[in-house]
Write a structure and sequence with these properties.
two-stranded antiparallel sheet, about 325 residues, five-stranded mixed β-sheet, single chain, alpha/beta, 2 domains, 12 helices
Length: about 325
Amino acid sequence: MGKVDVVTKEYMQNNTVFADACNYFIYGGQQVIQPEKLHEMDPEEILSLFDQENQKAVEKARDLLKMTTMMSDDKAAYLILGIENESKIRYVEPVKNGLYDFLRYAVQVRQTEKKHRSEKEWKGHNSGEFLSGFYKEDKLIPVITLVILYGSEKWDGPRTLQEMMTIQDPAIQKYVADYQINLIEPAAMDEEDLAKFQSDLGSVLGFIKYSKDEEALNNFLSNNASLKRLDREAAQVISICTNTKIEIDEEKEEIDVCKAVDQMTERARREGESKGRLETLRNAVINVMETFHVGLEEAMASLKVTKEEQALLKEMV
């Protein structure tokens, strides 16, 4: 597992951030899904197929999976929520996520079947229900999977299963079951979208969105006070996902990202000036050596090159 996978998974495990992502996508930012009502589920999707003699296990591992309880028609209802963190565009995303979701539904059917058989609840049910173990009144818990792209590029991959098909004939597509991914994509967000987040996820996605545009990023940093006291895990996501060398003190819970970026920019400026001076000195040293037919040490001494610069120039000449 790469660094991006590790930091994004650790970050999204936080119930506040997880709920914020779901509320943004499903409810437009309204705080419907409550962090305290989210419960971890095993992200391993495992299902044994076929009969007992010819059993074959299908096993897939999601990034994150949680269950929550909500009110539906004045009754408590369950909802299963999954999140897939992507640092790059995956052109098989509809198949990948569709497999996860349908494995979870298949697991629910199997669990329902086992429950009925263990409790021997056969009375009053027809032969079809008996054979399948899933009764007419049985229901499935909805599964919603969100994909979060931690990159500034626009998603140019398929968003639906039908987009991946070789045949685009509407007459055929009408009978091909479809599956659509639920995508959170920084490049497609505007300031109004980013403002819908209640956690620091909005700041993280905003930084990623503008990370390749220096002027836009500076404007974003200037207009977002929350970036001056960003949660350490959120700052780590920004640093690793955008390859921004933010100094993160592990002893501090909050990081001033604006200050860190300013320091990084200043270091880059000084390094650029130093590199430019070294290049100028290199050319001057070579010119002295060729003009007066002297060695490197003598040429550097005549130009009064410092000891630190001499060490660097010896590697360059």
